[in-house]
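Researcher: I need the complex structure. Ligand is heme C. Inputs:
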Amino acid sequence: MSEFRRHVMGAAATLALLAPAEAGSAQEAIAFPEGYRSWHHVKSMLIEEGHPLFADFGGLHHVYANDVARRGYETGSFEDGSVIVFDLLAVERTADNAVVEKERKVLAVMVRDSARFAATGGWGYEAWAGGDPAKPVVGEKAAEACHACHEQAAPDYVFSEWRP
Ligand code: HEC
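Model: Output:
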């Protein structure tokens, strides 16, 4: 078992301990999207000061899709097994006017499982502060923190579109 995987499993165990073990509400942690940097790059976007989402999403983000989600961007229907990653990095403007990538601010995912995540439109949501698998920040708050906004997106609650 790799050191990294041990780390991820450790994070899952921690979350399970923190979550109240009430019947019906206990939820297994969403897996960190290991290897996503080798998935399909969907698009990128720079959000600067003055944009309505700057407080939460300011910086440069890249969206990645696994093979199943990649097909969803083509067909307009995201099958179970789709995983989409939103990778947000801080940016810095250099003295000679380039914008360069800095530290990772957050790594967010949407995981398609229509039965397990029926309450949030078939998508499970999680995000890790700084992209650290040991620091999940969403947990049971997915409905208010994520889906309340994604609910407006179509098709299938996905905002981004495949950039040719
Ligand atoms: C206020 C609205 C809003 C909230 C809240 C929000 N998002 Fe998003 N999200 C967006 C928008 C807009 C995009 C599209 C960005 C683009 O096109 O580059 C997006 C894109 C994404 C994507 C890429 C797939 C897609 O739909 O384009 C993921 C994954 C994602 N968000 C996860 C999350 C998670 C996890 C949360 C909760 C912690 C969250 N989002 C909360 C607006 C929101």
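Model: Summary of the prediction. Strands lie at 40-47, 59-65, 83-93, 99-112, 123-129.
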